[in-house]
Amino acid sequence: MKDAFGLPQSLLVLGGTSEIALATARRLIARRTRTVWLAGRPSPALEEAAGQLRGLGADVHTVAFDALDPASHEAVLGKIFAEGDIDMVLLAFGLLGDQARDEREPEAAVRVAQTNYTGAVSAGLVCARALQSQGHGSLVVLSSVAGERARRANFIYGSSKAGLDAFAQGLGDALHGTGVHVMVVRPGFVRTRMTAGLPEAPLATTPEAVATAVELGLRRRSETVWVPGALRVVMSALRHLPRGVFRRLPI
């Protein structure tokens, strides 16, 4: 169960090799978390991540999970919840894609959409139902500022994150009063393997900074967290720019 400050004893990570998710897990283990489930595609990277968290003192399990196989989600995730209550689910899987290639190859674009939106809807609903059955828990969804307004440079990824963000907000409203807390995290450009080689955007941040914001959001039971916080003002301004002006921006 969570303590008075909202920090979990048990954590399920969907997207077990995500750098942001692992930074968050490390931070929570240093505070209170003792049991971690890392769900992702079987790989040496997943096992290495589990080993690192075990070295911090956590009891860590790995589970084969594929965001692109929604038909398996209920069975796979149901087995985890059957082992005992989960205090927090961190939905952290995602695919950035390659905008230029994805425009040329619609199948690649669909893969981005299915991973970031369809897979998240499926897994999110399964976990939400399980958390509701428990009567407690947090579902933390890694969204992105890219979902605030689609940009020419990455509108395929941005549109998938816009869908995810809207879904998570609606799910939070649906679960209000049930004991389940849904928190949407909207980072800007995060320096990770996924963004390596890309031009760095203003207000770029790190996985550790996102992890810090997640912890603070849990303590406050926030519904939306911006990382860094200044992006809330920046994106509000960009969202309301006339389309003709927005189209000419070098973004």
Automatic annotation (TrEMBL):
Enzyme Commission code(s) on record: 1.1.1.333
EC top class, as a word: oxidoreductase
UniProt key word Lipid metabolism: no
Pfam families: adh_short
Signal peptide: none
Swiss-Prot/TrEMBL keywords: Oxidoreductase
Molecular function via GO: oxidoreductase activity
Annotated PROSITE patterns: ADH_SHORT
InterPro entries reported for this sequence: NAD(P)-bd_dom_sf, Sc_DH/Rdtase_CS, SDR_fam
Recorded coiled-coil stretches: none
Protein source organism: Streptomyces olindensis
Entry keyword Oxidoreductase: yes
Protein name: Decaprenylphospho-beta-D-erythro-pentofuranosid-2-ulose 2-reductase
Membership in a protein family: Belongs to the short-chain dehydrogenases/reductases (SDR) family.
